[in-house]
Design goal:
The complex is a heterodimer of chains A (293) and B (540). Chain A is an alpha+beta fold and 293 residues long. Chain A has eight helices and twelve strands. With 540 residues, chain B is α+β, with helices and mostly antiparallel strands. The chains are: A alpha+beta (293), B alpha+beta (540).
């Protein structure tokens, strides 16, 4: 299933010169066929449309007819001349339908497959959270980003000879998310979400059900993330030389980054009003290569 | 390689051997006039020999023991090259497949050298050493020096003997060719061994050797393949560039010594001393594990310290029936049905660990061409990391496996660079992904000259209270702890080093107590610092 994203731009309809497959062929020789032939355009045209929206798409040739292949009840295609109007109704789930568009090219008929993605825009926020949890399940459960930052400060202190190699050995492994009291609950709630998210994408449950599971998993993850903050506090004796003290930022979903993190708290970042670029505020610059801002 | 310390025990009279003109060689260690062992910082060979008639042995030993300037006394043991299990004259053969690189060299018999073949790594061809593939990677431009302690050396037109000596039965003379010393002798063991390691390649003659190398021949075995451990010991000393009375001293040590010989006895103290001298000169010693279908630990030189021991496998990836085995064996290489050269235009298929050993010795020369500082610890680590385990009845066997030349080449060339224990700290694989975090200004870390030893990549362990210590030793001095300056220490798994200068110094690691009065070994583990040196992090 494709990921639904903001920006409902239609994929570019590039020049489709290549013809292949389909009909045609026939015997050799120089005899000119007296009737048209059908050619299938190999390139599939993707169209992404938000719910409750109609989008006009330019076809390469004059449209003769549209035949459903795997139609979706919430997707409607109409046409006039070279224009195809793709309409998506109010959605409770993502909608995907495929259609063959028949176009006239002289006496020949050109056929192109259209894949229409209807985006459930009202569920964006839940979908993004669910995608991040599903795709980064192990990293989130193990608080990998917190651990990466934690271990960096321990290792940096060792390289600067602020702690001994033996102290490094002890401290660098003193971060195990399984020690978190919220580990099991977070694991269970995240697993449940992943399962429901699959059902949602398949159209078996609607967005309200997804929202409930997302809220639950996010809440559990936030509690579980408290362990990461506690461990980061434990190395402030080492990190304070190069970074300001972390705010009490919980592990939450950073909308701009599209992922769960505690390192995009408003107290830590600056946003360029013109470009929208996000950078770390003074005192937190050292996090830049670690969080991939 | 034996790792435990030598057990101190006097072996006088254990197996007195009276032959060789009815004379016995007694070897004794010279100590101080106070009767205490000479304490030296550098490994030295303080042994002398005396040859007496068999009926004078006991009397002579008593006299030696009564002399306060003399310490241990031993009787020289007789040893011999492992008898080839079988030797088959080679007739022209055509291989339809397998010798991928047959066009790589113009040596006419190269096509017969199945040991070079690159078989697919299937269950039925697990014995491939992947030498031909490995040769595409090794840098063989540097001419190396391989010492061979053996007998039966003859000229073939396909090998370069740079120098040679005759050490048999107490002889000490320049010259080593069997055709000149014993013209009636048909023994060709040393010739067969030498060609596997160092036959000249691409010369339109004969076969191809593993390494681009000159051979330094020490004839220590007679026409029957027999010799004495005292002669072996002094042959090793000669190959290490040490002065040996009666023969022309080598200007510098060889890079590797091949010992395709064994005897069922404990490692003689004087032999261990000779080996230690060679090791301190940077020489790596490779030995055959023996052909007794027995535990190699019962045989010398396999039970000596600091020797790379090589067992034999068949082409099908099973162990040769004759090979010695056990914990002392470090690696296996093909020793069954091995094609080699015995004389001008004479070729044989031979069987024995004697022929596995030079294949590995040749590879050691290839490694040392790139890493001249590589000692046996580094060599064994590389060999073990590039082994293919034996599989019996579908079960992967523990212990030493078959050398994989291609994997070895990749490790040596740097393709699997992470194996090195000493690197710039930011080249450690644990930091590569986050290097930018360490180099940014806000980290306030001086990255120039910041090196680190990861001891988890070394075959050393540290007990509570001990330190990993890194010593800097001038290249003008012998590579020992005593000659070194402690530049860093750690009671953790890593040791930080700053501003190494491998151009003029060697760097080694030892496990020592706080004041260095006790270290595990007087020769530190060489850290091959020149491989770690980089100026990248100083230019920022």
């Amino acid at each position: 299933m494709k990921k639904l994203k903001l920006g409902l731009a239609i994929a570019s309809m590039g020049f489709l010169a290549a013809c292949g497959g389909g009909g045609g062929g026939g015997g050799g020789g120089s005899e000119t066929p007296k009737t048209g032939q059908e050619f299938r355009i190999n390139e599939v045209q993707d169209v992404t449309v938000g719910e409750n929206t109609t989008l006009a798409v330019s076809a390469q040739y004059s449209v003769k007819s549209i035949e459903p292949v795997t139609p979706n009840d919430n997707v409607t295609l109409t046409f006039s001349g070279n224009t195809i109007n793709v309409s998506v109704a109010d959605l409770q789930n993502p909608a995907l339908g495929s259609y063959d568009v028949y176009m006239a090219n002289g006496i020949d008929t050109m056929i192109q497959r259209y894949e229409v993605m209807g985006v459930n825009t009202s569920a964006f926020a839940y979908e993004d959270r669910a995608y991040d949890i599903r795709n980064n399940f192990e990293d989130l459960l193990n608080l990998a980003e917190d651990r990466k930052v934690y271990q960096f400060f321990v290792d940096l202190a060792y390289l600067k000879e602020a702690i001994t190699p033996a102290q490094r050995d002890v401290r660098i492994v003193d971060f195990d998310a399984r020690d978190s009291a919220g580990y099991v609950t977070a694991q269970n709630d995240m697993n449940a979400l992943v399962s429901v998210f699959g059902q949602y994408l398949d159209g078996d449950v609607d967005e309200s059900v997804l929202a409930g599971y997302v809220d639950q998993a996010e809440s559990s993850l936030m509690i579980h993330g408290g362990y990461g903050l506690e461990r980061l506090r434990a190395v402030e004796d080492l990190s304070s030389a190069v970074m300001s003290s972390l705010p009490d930022s919980p592990l939450t979903f950073a909308e701009d980054q599209g992922r769960f993190s505690r390192f995009f708290d408003s107290n830590m970042i600056e946003i360029d009003p013109d470009t929208g670029d996000v950078t770390y505020a003074a005192g937190y610059e050292i996090l830049t290569p670690l969080t991939g801002i | 390689m034996k790792k435990a310390a030598i057990v101190l025990a006097l072996s006088i009279g254990a197996t007195s051997f009276a032959k060789a003109a009815e004379q016995v060689t007694i070897v004794y260690k010279v100590v101080s006039t106070q009767g205490e062992a000479v304490q030296t910082d550098v490994p030295e060979y303080n042994w002398k020999t005396v040859r007496v008639d068999a009926d004078k042995v006991d009397e002579t030993v008593r006299e030696l023991k009564a002399d306060p300037t003399i310490g241990m006394v031993e009787i020289a043991q007789k040893v011999q090259a492992p008898k080839p299990v079988m030797e088959v004259p080679a007739y022209p053969k055509v291989y339809a497949q397998g010798v991928r690189a047959q066009a790589a060299f113009n040596d006419p018999e190269f096509i017969q050298q199945k040991v070079w073949a690159d078989y697919a790594d299937t269950d039925t061809n697990r014995g491939s050493l992947t030498i031909a593939q490995g040769m595409d990677i090794y840098d063989s431009t540097r001419r190396m020096k391989i010492g061979v302690v053996d007998g039966g050396f003859v000229e073939t037109g396909d090998i370069t003997y740079a120098q040679g000596v005759d050490m048999v039965f107490g002889n000490r003379a320049d010259g080593f060719l069997e055709t000149e010393i014993d013209p009636n002798c048909g023994y060709r063991h040393g010739t067969q061994v030498s060609h596997l390691a160092a036959a000249n390649r691409n010369n339109g003659v004969g076969m191809a050797g593993i390494a681009n190398a000159d051979v330094y021949a020490a004839r220590a075995l007679d026409c029957s393949g027999s010799g004495f451990t005292t002669d072996i010991a002094e042959s090793i000393l000669w190959l290490a560039g040490e002065p040996v009375s009666g023969v022309t001293q080598l200007p510098e040590p060889v890079d590797v010594i091949n010992l395709s010989l064994n005897a069922e006895t404990a490692c003689p103290f004087y032999l261990q001393d000779a080996l230690d001298v060679a090791r301190s000169r940077g020489v790596v010693i490779v030995a055959s594990a023996g052909n007794n279908s027995d535990d190699a630990a019962k045989y010398y030189p396999n039970n000596c310290e600091g020797v790379v021991n090589v067992g034999s496998n068949r082409f099908d990836g099973t162990k040769s029936s004759f090979t010695n085995d056990g914990e002392e064996v470090d690696v296996f290489a093909t020793g069954s049905d091995v094609f080699t050269m015995s004389g001008p235009g004479q070729y044989n298929y031979v069987y024995g660990t004697s022929f596995s050993s030079p294949i590995v010795a040749g590879h050691v020369a290839l490694i040392k061409a790139v890493e001249p500082e590589a000692d046996e610890t580094r060599i064994i680590r590389l060999l073990k990391a590039a082994q293919r385990s034996f599989v019996v009845n579908g079960l992967t066997q523990t212990g030493a496996g078959i050398m994989d030349s291609l994997k070895l080449a990749k490790a040596v060339s740097g393709e699997t660079y992470v194996a090195r224990p000493l690197v710039h700290a930011l080249n450690h694989e644990s930091r590569i992904a986050t290097e930018a975090a360490y180099t940014q200004a806000s980290a306030q870390l001086d990255t120039c000259g910041l090196y680190e030893v990861d001891t988890t990549k070394l075959d050393v362990s540290r007990d509570a209270g001990e330190f990993f210590k890194v010593f800097e030793v001038s290249k003008d001095s012998d590579f020992t702890v005593a000659n070194g300056t402690e530049v860093s220490n750690s009671q953790g798994s890593r040791v930080l080093l700053k501003n190494i200068n491998p151009t003029v110094n060697n760097y080694g690691l030892s496990v020592c107590n706080a004041d260095n009065s006790v270290c595990d070994s007087e020769i530190p583990v060489n850290l091959n610092a020149s491989k770690a040196l980089t100026g990248v992090y100083c230019a920022r």
